[in-house]
Write a structure and sequence with these properties.
AhpD-like, mainly alpha, about 200 residues
Length: about 200
C-alpha cells in the first residue's frame, strides 16, 4: 500500500515566486517550468538558514567525494525511511540522472534488501539503521569499510543525517510536491506504522 500524505496542505506557506525571488532561488527551477522548488520557497522565509542550508547541500550534491549513484541511493533510502514523498520524488529525478533505474527506485521503496549487490546493500542498511536507531551496527560498518575510506565514511554519515533532517522538515512543514515531480513508486511500503526498534 502506497503511503498516504502526512499533511494535506502546507503548515508554512512558501514565498510567492515573484521575479526577484525566482532569480535568487534558481536551483532546481529547470525541473519545475522555471519556478523555484517549493522546498527553497519555504526555506527562503528564513534567509540566514536558507543560505547555510544551501551551502552544505551544495557541498554534498556537487562537490562531495561520493559517486553520484551511491549518493542518490542513500538519499532515496533515507527519504523512504523518513516517509518523505517530497524528498523521494525530487531525488527520483536526480537519481535517474545518476544512473539509478526505475526498477531500482521501486525497490528502494520496499522494506527488504533482496537483489542488491553487497556494496549497495551496505549503503541501504546504513540508511535504514540511521533512520531507525541513529546508529550504524558493527556488521554494517564492517561491510562499509571494505569499500569506503574514513573520509568517505564521514561524508556518508553526514549525507544520511542531512537528508534525514531535510525529510523531517519537509514532512513537518508540509512542503507540497510539485505537480510534475514523481511521488512514491507504485507499491511503495508505508513504514510509518512500524515500531522503532530500540538501539542495541
Amino acid at each position: 500500500m502506497t503511503p498516504e500524505p502526512l499533511l494535506d496542505r502546507p503548515r508554512i506557506e512558501p514565498l510567492p515566486a515573484d521575479d526577484a525571488v525566482a532569480q535568487r532561488l534558481a536551483v532546481g527551477a529547470d525541473r519545475n517550468d522555471g519556478r523555484p522548488l517549493n522546498i527553497f520557497l519555504t526555506l527562503a522565509r528564513h534567509e540566514e538558514l536558507f543560505n547555510s542550508f544551501g551551502r552544505l547541500g551544495s557541498l554534498l550534491l556537487f562537490k562531495g567525494r561520493l559517486p553520484a549513484r551511491e549518493r542518490e541511493l542513500v538519499i532515496l533510502r533515507v527519504g523512504y525511511g523518513a516517509q518523505s514523498e517530497y524528498e523521494f520524488g525530487q531525488h527520483t529525478v536526480i537519481g535517474r540522472e545518476a544512473g539509478i533505474t526505475d526498477e531500482e527506485i521501486t525497490r528502494l521503496a520496499a522494506a527488504d534488501l533482496d537483489g542488491w549487490s553487497p556494496d549497495d546493500a551496505a549503503l541501504l542498511r546504513m540508511a535504514d539503521e540511521l533512520c531507525r536507531n541513529d546508529f550504524v551496527s558493527a556488521e554494517t560498518w564492517t561491510d562499509l569499510t571494505r569499500r569506503w575510506d574514513n573520509t568517505e565514511l564521514l561524508e556518508l554519515l553526514v549525507l544520511a543525517g542531512y537528508y534525514r533532517l531535510v525529510s523531517g522538515m519537509l514532512n513537518s512543514a508540509g512542503v507540497a510536491l510539485e505537480p510534475r515531480t514523481p511521488g512514491w513508486p507504485e507499491g511503495a511500503a508505508d513504514l510509518r506504522r512500524a515500531p522503532r526498534e530500540p538501539a542495541r
